[in-house]
């Protein structure tokens, strides 16, 4: 077990530029951050790491004034600063570049610069530096490609010479040549005595760029490590923490899936592509099988589920249901094929002002020929049995918005139990709900598999994989990078795979081992 | 939050009354209606009699049907501003075609523009995602224009009000307005549709959360197209009823009813943002507005002042009602 021990070998050489300690933030009963700290030295490129939901984005939002912390202290150059707004963060010398471009689409670049009072000449210089020689400042932001917009965002931040630059997944969605320039500029920023907080899922970049990394887990800072060769194992360990120890195999009827795997798969995904987000993904989902999907945020899993649910159309490849190729143009097509989608965000799935009953019965009335009078008694029986099956607390059933999050999530699942869907696509269905309900959902999914139904289960909580799944596929950068049988899918293995690190013995893996382009570095060998 | 459901504690009389009214939103509306009638009786003793009641009901019915159009479209987060034009068109076409045509043919001709405008509204809103306000306003203007063109072609043949519509619009049987024969089944049908049919459920679902409805397999355009066609048909029928009541075909016959019909639905507790409301409240809303109009007429104020007061009262009633009913 790893505690909150500092793993830095030498004491801090100088006063930190930015020092946040004991930062906490609660959303209702959910603690997004409990005790986070982050200390950035002058001239340092500092990585901020953590699994999904560890609290990275919350900490970043607090540091940049987008939200206010419930507790904690932020020192900038040794002075306590109360960052009340993004403008205050800016004045304090802290400037973020978020994943979403922040230029106003309807204005041209020059107007966007004026809006933030960015000096034009330095901006121009940075844009050239970042590898875009021919930018016309009169171009409307809407017409500029996304990758370039992100670079412009960065240039805009660099132009005001912030003390601390905060980069959130800066290189995501950038083509290789631009990404390289960006990394180069970030590195030089550190060399010139300014600091950068660098959030990334890519170990390759972090090892090439960063001096130290702060690791968050469950809203707490669990370690600060120097980036040296071989440290990624340490980081993975820190991100997982004590959970490795308590990982347990639940008694599941193993081999059940194997018996059915020989027959035609319920759902076959063949070389599926969705734009640039999802590339060449293939896998099978058998009857009676629960297949887990593990991926870091934004690796293409959203697109995979949306395509299977009929919400978006794939740009390539095919989907087969019971061996027959299908084309979904609307979710109702998928539903007719027996495929139901349970989104992670409950507000996406529920009519919040309507009753539990109406929400569960909604798919019954969807088809044109079901628009007539409702057969009240028959419907009530079906809905009641689904409610009983999921043990939904119906004390506040008049309006779904009055239910707890866990009960709301149960309603979204009960809907498809009532509709007798054969395949359920669960997208992070257990996010943000209480432990008891989570257990019930695991049990339910296993029971469904026992009834020869199949489940595709994306989860951001790795420990769930071994509780629920028969197999697990790992997606990284839009590709399926690995498929594990559940016996091998322990958390460290999944975490490594999710970060695009190759499978295998830990000691052989150097920090610069990149699965896509392998630069042979001498330090990689321990 | 939900704590109120689980924590029994002594509550003040005021809060209990508020809770009671929040659970039964019709009660405060009925109380308001009764208060208005009582005020009327005080201001002009003896006015509230059988004849007055029948008259009030007669004038409230066309308003209530048009308000039904607004209720249904508002449940999906929309609105139908073309009901006035549609009602006027079918009334006008009926009155002019009946001169030379068989009544059944005249009726079909009268309902044609209703179906057409409803279909265009529905496709515009449901398929091309034009905002309902703009879409129905647009078709309303187009309809008015077409009616003006049409008027010139029938200027020689004249117009008359069919006896049947006369009977339906103004006639009384045992003191009850005959219009109730049309309205009661229609109202029952609307209430039933909203509460007990798949279509009604979809109206609420689409208005509450369109994305969730889509994920449940609901095809938005189908629901919306059907909705606006139904709304237009109701408006067309209202036009026929209204011409029997007013007896003077004009190019702006039902236009003055449009905004009151929206007000009646809102006063009746239907949310313009969708997903919330029902038709029974709307009916009482229509009655309230009709009584209010009588009340203001009796006060013998200048027209301008009367309109100002009408607007103020509608605003005040709506705000107060929402405060009473919304517990949050």
TrEMBL record, chain B:
<dbReference type="InterPro" id="IPR001851">
    <property type="entry name" value="ABC_transp_permease"/>
</dbReference>
<feature type="transmembrane region" description="Helical">
    <location>
        <begin position="63"/>
        <end position="93"/>
    </location>
</feature>
<dbReference type="Pfam" id="PF02653">
    <property type="entry name" value="BPD_transp_2"/>
</dbReference>
<keyword id="KW-1003">Cell membrane</keyword>
<dbReference type="GO" id="GO:0022857">
    <property type="term" value="F:transmembrane transporter activity"/>
</dbReference>
<feature type="transmembrane region" description="Helical">
    <location>
        <begin position="25"/>
        <end position="43"/>
    </location>
</feature>
<feature type="transmembrane region" description="Helical">
    <location>
        <begin position="105"/>
        <end position="128"/>
    </location>
</feature>
<keyword id="KW-0472">Membrane</keyword>
<feature type="transmembrane region" description="Helical">
    <location>
        <begin position="174"/>
        <end position="194"/>
    </location>
</feature>
<keyword id="KW-0812">Transmembrane</keyword>
<feature type="transmembrane region" description="Helical">
    <location>
        <begin position="282"/>
        <end position="302"/>
    </location>
</feature>
<feature type="transmembrane region" description="Helical">
    <location>
        <begin position="308"/>
        <end position="325"/>
    </location>
</feature>
<keyword id="KW-1133">Transmembrane helix</keyword>
<dbReference type="GO" id="GO:0005886">
    <property type="term" value="C:plasma membrane"/>
</dbReference>
<feature type="transmembrane region" description="Helical">
    <location>
        <begin position="220"/>
        <end position="245"/>
    </location>
</feature>
<protein>
    <submittedName>
        <fullName>ABC transporter permease</fullName>
    </submittedName>
</protein>
